[in-house]
Amino acid sequence: MIICCGEALMDMIPVQLPKGGTGFVPHTGGAIFNTAVALGRLGVPAGMISGVSQDAFGQKLAETLSANTVDTGLLIRSSHLTTLAIVHLVDGHATYAFYDEGSAGRSITPKDLPDLPDSTSALYFGGISLVSLPAADAYSDLCAKAAGQYPVMIDPNIRPSFITDAAAYRARLDRMLGQADIVKVSDEDLAWITGGAGSLEDQAAVLQAKGARFVIITRGSEGAMALCDGAVAHVSAKRATVVDTVGAGDTFNAGVLAHLQQSKRLDKAALGQMSAQDLAGALAYGARVAAVTVSRAGANPPWVHEL
User: Which SUPFAM superfamilies does UniProt cross-reference here (predicted)?
Assistant: First the structure.
């Protein structure tokens, strides 16, 4: 079972009202939540560690995970409120404003974390859950303890407007990136982390020097690339009519993990023997499932029978 560790929240999606103006409709979301749902829909055993409220939104989040075959037994339930992400769409591109102070997701501590089940095959981290304390320290501690035994994938999915202490966040992220087997970043994330000097290959080398074996870079319509041991593999994006980009990267990540799991390569020994080109099939599958997500509104990844 792949354990997705991080935020579950409600995306408030803008809609045009019949009499004019804009309203916001709540949809389940969050980068890590979206990846867990996508894994479930792709037929991969998945579970989620997250702080989830007992309020109506939190109940909806738990119900949605269950409906998508994601194990909810590791959720940390509390009376704190659910995080809200106000989504702004410009030409289909999403930006976010988060209402997260004192939320259920943000409030978990290292002592709240459950033990990992024997069925654990890999851990996936990222998103805004790596930014705010105390939850960020909880996930950092879990990553440090698990990385020696299980494959770890991280997608920081950086939201600069959400970061209030950049130095502390960079230090925490650097530690976690050094413990990861696979780091996936957008080209924008990569520039934020490294300062943007040099080519994408030069910037990826900075991340690999921290300890990651594979660095995956996504570039929207220009496709994705995987880098390992000085070699690069490129995969083209799949053609799609874009409705919006909400959940696209999260679905791509699920596709990568699903392909590795189903090809029996999602373990530390197998990953250690793989090349950049060996990862190309996983990237292509990630691009395929992401293309479905961008073709419809919101974070709505495909079921495996839709592919």
Answer: Ribokinase-like
Boundaries of domain holding 263: 2-302
Written in H, E and C, the secondary structure of 129-157 is HHCCCCHHHHHHHHHHHHCCCCCEEEECC
DSSP letter at 296 equals S
- Helix, strand, or coil (residue 70): strand
Whether cis (ω within 30° of 0) applies to the bond prior to 134 is yes
Q: What Cα–Cα distance (Å) separates residue 201 from each residue in 6, 160, 162, 194?
A: 28, 23, 27, 12
Residue 88 domain flag:
yes
Q: How many domains does the chain have?
A: 1
- Tokens describing residue 101: 């102070």
Q: Let me know if residue 252 belongs to a domain.
A: yes
Tell me if residue 66 falls in helix, strand or coil.
helix
Helices marked H in the chain: 31-41, 56-67, 135-146, 166-179, 187-194, 200-210, 248-262, 268-273, 280-294
CATH number at residue 287: 3.40.1190.20
Within a domain: residue 74? yes
Query: Percentage of residues in the chain with pLDDT exceeding 70?
Result: 100
> 30-66 b/e with 16+ CB inside 10 Å = b?
bbbbbbbbbbbbbebbbbbbbbbbeeebbebbbebbe
Taking the CA atoms of the chain, what radius of gyration do you get in angstroms? 18
Q: Is residue 307 part of a domain?
A: no
* Each residue's pLDDT tens digit, 18-42: 989 999 999 999 999 999 999 999 9
- pLDDT greater than 90 at residue 96: no
**Residue 273, beta-bridge partner list:** none
- Cα dist. 200→86, 187, 194, 204, 225 in Å? 31, 8, 10, 6, 10
Instruction: From 244, 243, 251, select the one nearest 157 (Cα to Cα).
Output: 251
The percentage of residues in the chain with a pLDDT greater than 90, rounded to a whole number, is 84
User: How far, in Å, CA of 57 to CA of 166, rounded?
Assistant: 30
